[in-house]
Fold this protein.
Amino acid sequence: MKRIIFVTIVCGLTLTMFAQQKKIYEMSNSEIDVMLREQSKKQTTITEKMNYYSSLFIGMPYNLTCAGDGPYALLETEPMVNFKQTNCMLYCEHVLALSISDSWDNFFNNLQQIRYKDGIIGMRTRNHYTMADWMPENNWLLDDVSGIVGGEFSKQITRTISHKKFFEGKGIDDLRYVLPDREITIDYVAFASMSKVKQNIKDGDIAAILFAKLDNIFSAHMIMMIVKDGKLIVRESSNSKMTTFDTPFDEWLKKYEKSEKYMGISLMRVKDELNVPGKIILPWEIAGMK
């Protein structure tokens, strides 16, 4: 009898360990719900959860058009949640939403708060532009720390963002509720200076890679900075490999230091006052945090 109990316990532990090692694209929605409930009980910070959850996407296929505004949308009818494929922005959004949630339902609703202005689902209210929409609309959760990370090496750039032209390019003629053209100035760190400020980057920082020559858009790509085994790595979903993968920071930087297409990065970080052990943010709390 004791032997049977012992074997049962060992098998149970083995199955639990195996379940914890499954990639997120191998899990059902119910399994993700269980994982979220279990992880939320741990006294880990939001960025520690980002480190953990982002690792579960490694190997997930890349697809630029893998998500949209749902089946009832007029234009992009892809699902609002996709754990089988991802792209750079979707990856960062999913990881952030997972890291502040304690259940599948709260994850889903937190995700819409991150992706859309005031959580209102639609093409016109989606945070399309990383530095003009996504960062400002998520300043309840994130700080732009480009100037802090860059210090004396930080720079500024000003560009004009036109939602009107963006939506017209998608065939949208109803522009009644579209923001007017805006001239926006942001901080950034040039790739040539990144090695000098590497020590200022923290685990969980999200970065936007900036176009060098385009005057109507800032961001070309979104990545996460992760500390793994004491070393800084770049974790991203990219069409360069059509998957989700890690690259040592120094190796990653070499690809961009002499780039003519890209100029540097802007960095975003979970607010210090939120990044505390055990912190969970519930969807109905977000309106009061803005």
Observations:
- The first strand starts at residue 142 and ends at 144.
- The mean pLDDT is 93.
